[in-house]
Amino acid sequence: ISDQKPLGCWSVKHGQILTCPVVCNFETHEYIAVHDKRVLRIWKNEDINLDKAFKATLSADVYRIHSLPLGGPVVLFKGGGVRTLDVLLEAPQQQIEHVISGEVIRWSGAFMEGQQPVLIFITQKDVEFFVYVQKPKLNSLHRYRLEYQKSAKPMCFTAYLTDQTVTLLSLYSNDCVYQVLIPLQQDTEGKGKANKILSKSLLLHLAMSGAVLRGTSLVVLDKDHIAVLGCLYAFGKRLGRESLTIWNTKFKILQTSEELPRATSGQLWCYEEKFFLIQGKVLTVIMYKCETSLAAAVGKLKDRAGTSLFLDWNTVEDEELVVSFQSQKPVALKAEPKMNLRSKRRTVAEEQPETLTAGKFVQNLKSAPTFVWETELRALMAAAPTPDLLATIGCMVTALTDRCKKNPKYYPQSLLQEIVGTHDLSYSLCPDLMALALEKKDMHLLQLCLERFPDIPEEVTYICLKAFLSISDASLRGIDIDVDSVICYIDVQLDGEEVKTEIVENGFSAEMEQDMCDTKLPKESHLRSHAGSCPVGLQKAALLNAVLHSAYTETFLLPHLKNLPAQQAILFLRYLYYLYVKCSEKVNITLPGIHSPTISQIMDWMCLLLDAQFTVMLMLPEAKELLSNLHKFVRAQVRFYSELNKIEGSLQELERLNHLRESQTYSIEVLEII
Fold first, then answer.
1. DSSP-derived 3-state class of residue 596
2. Left (φ > 0), alpha (ψ -120 to 50) or beta: where does 272 sit?
3. How far apart are the first and last CA of the chain?
4. For residue 656, which phi and psi values (nearest 5 degrees)?
5. Are 415 and 433 in contact (CB under 8 A)?
6. Cβ contact 267:260 at 8 Å
7. pTM, whole model, 2 decimals?
8. In Å, how far from its chain's centre is CA 631?
9. Where in this chain does the record put each Nucleolar protein 11 C-terminal domain (predicted)?
């Protein structure tokens, strides 16, 4: 999520359809999917072609696969049959029993009871709903009937398992949440009939400020809190947009709510104190934290406009994280540990209002003078590390860039460079920073962002590359740019005289190698000479190296590289070719220096650039010699490594003989390499 880049992408063939959500097997780190209802696919992250992945055709239609961290995947079939994945793979065509008849599965969930997986699913037949509880490893099945309610029907379900009891929560059409307790039967094997009716009890009525929340999705946060996504209605009329709400089931009150700026898909997920919602093409992630304090809950209910003590809302309008900004003042609880309980509670209640979200903290500084802004930001940077620190600094930087846009004369260059250079920020925390740096032509700040931000969009990476290639070397000479990534190997010119910088390993240079060995090195040296000196200056080379370090996804970067002007593409390819030759001069194929590009990064960018610009380069006369030299050099490399592969077996045999030889015995051996 933080990188905002797809780590993998797989597609089924044309005409095939994925018919249930893909899950991950936590034990084997494999993905499991079902397409066309019965075809099971299993693959790993490094697999590229889904069509070549493991395939098994099953004998029945699959409804859902549930993956449990300690119990492995469990497969639920549309007929109600349940199998663990291991048992299913032993005989994929095994017969699957039909547990339900004339019923349709509406919801399912899986849990772990000790070492045993437990699967629960709910079916509907006409107006009645049934609950099935299965333990597949024990061949245990129990069926219950939900208490029928004529005036309302269940809309969605969720459940959790505690103390061998399944707590089923149902959101009904009458805007109420009901609770059903299902004790897990202890029999090791057997089937229960639908004689027992599960009675429900009212847990919550979703009423707030004269209106009711008509929910579309429900999730459990902990034993005392639930979250409901829906719209407010009053007198049958919809009020405003969708809202995300958190309710305290212990005190039966609304904990907090927030109106969403855009429509959602109606679905809500929760994982590791984060909400996940889909709003159009955007996946929104909202961090939250629940606390169980009656005083705070009542205070929140009285003043809904006040600071939320339970939820760190995403500033949904700006799609930026809002995080709690904790006061640095010592809490009185620490200063006076012998206070009685009543005094402690009073002290905590007094300290809570000092907790500010980053949004409110920035709002308080909105009209403050510039020096106050910078002072507060530097104090924040010097503060002790907290989980919220980086996100808070990101909000401050975003507000600072807004101030720079409003006042073109104001640009705290050194402060921004210090922030990026000393803290592990990301592009998503301060998305306007690189655009501001491009506008101000702050090349050093762009270099730092490219080297340190893990989630830069491909379009921004391309814009930076184009800017670096278009600026002249003369313009860069007066700019402070970090050249540690190039100073150790690049060919520089001093006072008009070219100085060749060569990579030397353990004091062993190419000239010494040429004098000592009568080989065909002159021919390879001739190929290397085609690269010549570095085609760009020292500063520009350092900036281009920063681009090579930036993370990207080939699918998204390739369309932008096709728009790169031809002359800039040739210049960039010349530099990549120069780096490739430099890496290949020595056996370890690594460049010295800090943040120097690796051989993999160089070759990946070279291939990507050739894919994007190959047709254009074939049409340009000035690119012909470059492509020819590159082809010859790569061909020589392939020939060299091919020769090495031929003697690989002999070298392994020599290594084996060295292990067998007695160290105390002196001998002379002649090994013939055929």
1. coil
2. left
3. 55
4. -65, -40
5. no
6. no
7. 0.52
8. 38
9. 410-672
Which neighbouring-strand residues pair with 378? none
Q: What region does 622 belong to: left with phi over 0, alpha with psi -120 to 50, or beta?
A: alpha
Domain-wise residue ranges, the chain: 359-441
> Which backbone phi and psi does 310 adopt, to 5 degrees?
-115, -20
Note the pLDDT of residue 104: 95
Say if residues 6 and 41 touch (Cβ distance below 8 Å).
no
Tokens of 550: 């930036």
What are the φ and ψ backbone dihedral angles of 248, each rounded to 5 degrees?
A: -95, 110
Looking at residue 247, what is its pLDDT?
Answer: 92
The DSSP call for residue 138 is: G
Distance, in Å, from the CA atom of 157 to the CA atom of 169, rounded to the nearest integer, reads: 6
Quick one: which H or E segment has residue 254? Answer: strand 253-259
For 61-98, write each residue's pLDDT tens digit.
999 999 998 888 999 999 999 999 999 999 999 999 99
Would you state the torsion angle of the CA atoms of residues 434, 438, 442, 448, taken in this order, to the nearest 10 degrees?
A: 30
Residues 6+ apart with CB under 8 A from 392: 323, 325, 358, 361, 380
SS3 161: strand
Are 401 and 410 in contact by the 8 Å Cβ rule? The answer is: no
Predicted local confidence at residue 659, as pLDDT: 64
Name the 3-class secondary structure at 436: helix
- The SS3 of residue 386 is coil
- Please provide residue 117's backbone torsions phi and psi, each rounded to the nearest 5 degrees: -75, 140
Q: Which helix (H) or strand (E) holds 407?
A: none
- Average pLDDT over the chain reads 77
How far apart, in whole angstroms, are the C-alpha atoms of residue 426 and residue 443? 18
pLDDT tens for 647-657 read 777 777 777 76
Pairing between strand 30-35 and 39-44?
antiparallel
* DSSP letter, residue 326: -
**Helical H runs in 286-432?**
294-302, 332-335, 341-351, 358-364, 370-382, 389-406, 413-422
Q: Which residues contact 202 (CB under 8 A, 6 or more apart)?
A: 176, 177, 178, 179
Q: What is the bridge-based pairing of β-strands 104-113 and 154-162?
A: unpaired
